[in-house]
Design goal:
alpha/beta, OB fold (Dihydrolipoamide Acetyltransferase, E2P), 7-stranded mixed beta sheet, 6-stranded mixed beta sheet, 13 strands, 32% strand, binds S-adenosylmethionine
């Protein structure tokens, strides 16, 4: 007897007007990790039929763009392209549409499953690698990334690749993923981007965010500098005290604003 795959989330999606049960995975992931915020521009790679696009639009209401090999039925306020996410011309189309950098790149892309475990795993890793390199091209410094991967031998190496590019990386299996599914989601925050600054250098900067410790953080050419004793919006002259591969510490030498 064929098992009925239509579970609670399938019926709930029908009721709530979502195109796919996968919408709940993104809702659950976002509730836990706060990847997409109001006003964010979001790129969805492998987006058909559009369940994640619907959720991204609700969460952000900013610029939302989706790409898939399949045609995506229109969603108001969302732009879609039919194309291969691994091709440069697709990335160029997205860049042109955004007219700037994206805040978040998400990918739920899956290969057509053959049933041969190793083969499907390898193709899923391929898609996730290509989502990662696209994310690097499209995201602003400290932007966020989410990718689905089918677990297997190559998963840890993929995770290492993501960890080299983002400062905070978690692996998550949302409740809406079927228990028997091999899929997991790699949730990555704060893309590390930009030229490292060096001790002794002096910059005029504005504090644009706060770190976990509550200290101010400024981006210098996309590189994060943490400055003790500063608050959001402060404008200060800083001297770099110590520089790590992915961030630096600075000290205030003059307050400008
Ligand atoms: C599980 S579905 C995505 C579901 C979607 N998140 C939603 O909520 O509606 C995976 C999608 O990845 C797409 N895909 C696979 N390889 C792709 C590629 N190279 N370029 C673009 N899309 C691809 C498939 O066409 C499929 O529609």
């Amino acid at each position: 007897m064929v098992k009925d795959q239509r579970d609670h989330y399938y019926w709930k999606a029908k009721e709530d007007g979502y195109r796919a049960r996968s919408s709940y995975k993104l809702l659950q992931i976002n509730k836990k990790f706060n990847l997409i915020k109001k006003g964010d521009s979001v790129v969805d790679l492998g987006a058909a039929p559009g369940g994640w696009l619907q959720v991204a639009k609700e969460l952000s209401a900013g610029k939302i763009v989706g790409v898939d090999l399949q045609r995506i039925e229109p969603i108001s306020g969302v732009t879609t392209f039919q194309g291969d996410m691994t091709r440069d011309e697709t990335i160029d189309n997205i860049k042109e549409f955004l007219g700037g950098e994206a805040d978040v790149v998400i990918s739920d892309a899956s290969p057509n499953l053959s049933g041969a475990w190793d083969y499907d795993h390898a193709r899923s890793i391929d898609l996730a690698e290509s989502a990662l390199s696209t994310a690097e091209k499209l995201l602003k410094p400290r932007g966020n990334f989410l990718a689905k991967v089918f677990q297997g031998d190559m998963f840890n190496r993929y995770l290492e690749h993501v960890r080299k590019k983002f400062s905070r990386v978690k692996v998550h299996h949302p409740p809406a993923s079927r228990k028997e599914s091999a899929e997991v989601y790699v949730v990555a925050k704060d893309l590390l981007k930009g030229r490292p600054v060096k001790p002794g250098e002096i910059y005029d900067i504005k504090i644009t965010s706060l770190g976990k410790s509550g200290d101010g953080v400024a981006l210098i050419d996309g590189f994060a500098v943490i400055i003790k004793g500063t608050r959001l919006g402060d404008e200060v002259k800083v001297r770099i005290k110590d520089s790590k591969p992915h961030f630096a510490f600075g000290e205030v030498i003059e307050r400008n604003g």
